[in-house]
Design brief:
With about 350 residues, this protein is α+β, with helices and mostly antiparallel strands. It contains nine helices and 19 strands. A six-stranded mixed sheet has the order 6-7-8-3-9-10, with helices on both faces. The chain has a five-stranded antiparallel sheet with strand order 13-17-14-15-16. It is elongated.
Length: about 350
């Protein structure tokens, strides 16, 4: 393993940022720390980097106990959300900075900078200042600067969070391709589920200072450990007391096929997709509506429209997670880890 985190805890006054966290991050993989704001993911990343000090626990990087090592001795590259560029230096000088303070020969520095600028497709901007680059170009420059010192681990703290949606999409595709070329162990923080599912080899879901689940994107989406993971990674709806994904709800137009009876109260077309809102029989308001996602072609074939009576059930093999409630009707978080599968 490239990074071993054992028993890490971090408190800010009475607030528990991390509570006794254990985590192993494989060498050469692209790992996402995913979770809501305030869940503890950035705190964990900064503790690994040495930018924060844990109250308890240990951090090991490539077999070396780094718990008490300062950041500059941990052999990690760190990329911030807002680039942290040297504004008075050219792009080439920014990338060269880490090599120059390590007193590398000037010839080697020039060659390495040229290699990295070509790798991140910025060679034509070598003499520009950071202010003359777009946001996406500045982030690629920051990645090149972090890679220049050939770190054992590359850490990225919401690297695309300050960019617009189109540039984010382009850069995460680029990051995946870059990682496949350089194979450096990479850990990045994000609260964007699509970003994690699309880019990462492995996802660590963090919430309220603890790890909810670790696994591949496919494992977490198809086999969520609990209500939180299922709801955080993808759309969910509630059908007959269970969480299920809208595209896993089967629709029948006759009662002999069985299922939960209801009526279509709204039909929303989004491109090739139709999103149905079905109110179960006896339900009083929209808070009980079941959301069903179908292709436009299938919805038309079934003749589904507002007012159509339907019967709903999860598809065979669909992942369902029981919604646990207290007698008062509130969600019971202590029971949220139980799950089921229809077979």
């Amino acid at each position: 393993m490239s990074i071993e985190v054992r028993g890490i805890s971090k408190h800010y006054g009475d607030f528990v940022a991390l509570g006794d966290v254990d985590l192993s991050i494989p060498t050469g993989r692209l790992t996402a720390l995913l979770g809501p704001s305030g869940g503890g993911k950035s705190t964990l990343l900064r503790i690994i980097a040495g930018l924060e000090v844990a109250d308890a626990g240990t951090v090991e990087i490539e077999g070396v106990d780094a718990t008490r090592l300062p950041p500059q001795r941990r052999d990690v590259g760190f990329v911030f959300q807002h680039y942290a560029a040297f504004k008075h230096m050219t792009v080439a000088k920014n990338v060269a900075f880490g090599l120059e303070i390590r007193k590398r020969p000037k010839k080697d520095v020039r060659a390495k900078v040229q290699e990295l600028l070509e790798l991140v497709h910025l060679e034509q901007f070598a003499d520009r200042l950071p202010s003359q680059l777009s946001g996406g170009q500045r982030q690629r420059m920051a990645l090149a600067r972090a890679l220049a010192v050939e770190p054992k681990v590359l850490l990225l703290d919401e690297p695309f969070g300050a960019l617009d949606a189109k540039v984010r999409k382009e850069l995460r595709d680029w990051l995946r391709r870059l990682h496949d070329e350089v194979h450096v162990t990479t850990v990045f923080v994000t609260h964007d589920q699509e970003e994690a599912l699309e880019v990462a080899d492995e996802i660590v879901v963090i919430n309220h200072g603890r790890i909810e689940q670790v696994g591949s994107p496919e494992d977490l989406y198809d086999e969520p450990a609990n209500e939180f993971v299922m709801g955080f990674l993808g759309d969910v709806t509630t059908l007959d007391g269970h969480l299920v994904r809208p595209h896993d709800v089967q629709v029948h137009t006759s009662p002999d096929r069985g299922g939960v009876p209801g009526t279509v109260v709204r039909a929303l077309r989004i491109g090739f997709e139709v999103r149905l809102f079905v109110r179960p029989e006896g339900a009083a308001d929209e808070g009980s509506d079941v959301v069903v996602t179908l292709t436009r072609t299938f919805a038309r074939a079934l003749g589904l429209d507002v007012g159509t009576p339907v019967w709903l059930e999860p598809e065979q093999g669909a992942r369902v997670v029981p919604v646990r409630r207290t007698p008062a009707g509130a969600l019971d978080g202590d029971d949220a880890g139980r799950e089921g599968v229809l077979v």
